[in-house]
Amino acid sequence: MTEYPDPVPADRAPDPDRPRRRRPAVTTALIVMCVGVYGFGRLWPEVESTLIFAPWLGETQPYRFIGSAFIHADFWHLIFNMYALWLVGNAIEPAFGRWRFIALYALSAIGGNVAVLVLSDPTGVSYFTFVVGASGAVFGLFGALFVLAKRLSRDTTALLILLGINLILGFILEGISWQSHLGGLIVGVVLAFFYVRTNRLWGHIAATAAVAMTLAGTILLNYA
């Protein structure tokens, strides 16, 4: 039998004496934040106009690369994304640990908007099209779940079908940013790949920093 490194980080190894696993506190906090921002946005539209992302806005207001992940177009957009976030967060936050989960979420959200920037036409309407929602971040988490499941030799057929359908819908239905989905998915897969390849903390920190710097460099190059 071949032995593989433990896919769960060493500093997050489960305690066999613990009767219940820890609650997904970060997942819960993210959902509360998104719901709260949505509520404030209904009362004060300035909240959404401050956080919404479009390539032409990101150069002078880079906080929009992450801020737009906390606002949603309508109630059902919010509900769908929060339900998906709850499902996948419950699955992978305990496995990766809180700070890695935060990194996965934040960098996937940024990566989604970076993809929107890179794939937009500076002379066309796509450069001025607004993008909102946690979909890029959620796709990143699903990508991380896929990597973790493969590492544990689990059946990933259903997950692949789900991802494939949602990616295809982004190309078919209007009002869905397939660029954001694709960018978030790529970032989530890359980060999770490095997280499960080693259980050394410094390796995880280095991988997180490398992905963050790559995204920052891509932004700078595109605006240069």
Automatic annotation (TrEMBL):
Gene Ontology MF term list: peptidase activity
Stored Pfam families: Rhomboid
| Disordered: annotated segments | 1-22
Task: Give GO BP annotations, semicolon-separated.
Answer: proteolysis
What are the residue boundaries of the Peptidase S54 rhomboid domain, all occurrences included?
60-197
Q: Which domain of life is it from?
A: Bacteria
Q: Where in the cell is it found?
A: Membrane
Please state the protein's primary subcellular location. Answer: membrane
Keywords tagged on the record: Hydrolase, Membrane, Protease, Transmembrane, Transmembrane helix
Gene3D superfamilies in the record: Rhomboid-like (1.20.1540.10)
Q: Which membrane topology describes this protein?
A: Multi-pass membrane protein
What are the transmembrane regions? 25-45, 65-89, 101-119, 125-149, 156-173, 179-196, 201-223
The entry sums up its family as follows:
Belongs to the peptidase S54 family.
Question: What name does this protein carry?
Answer: Rhomboid family intramembrane serine protease
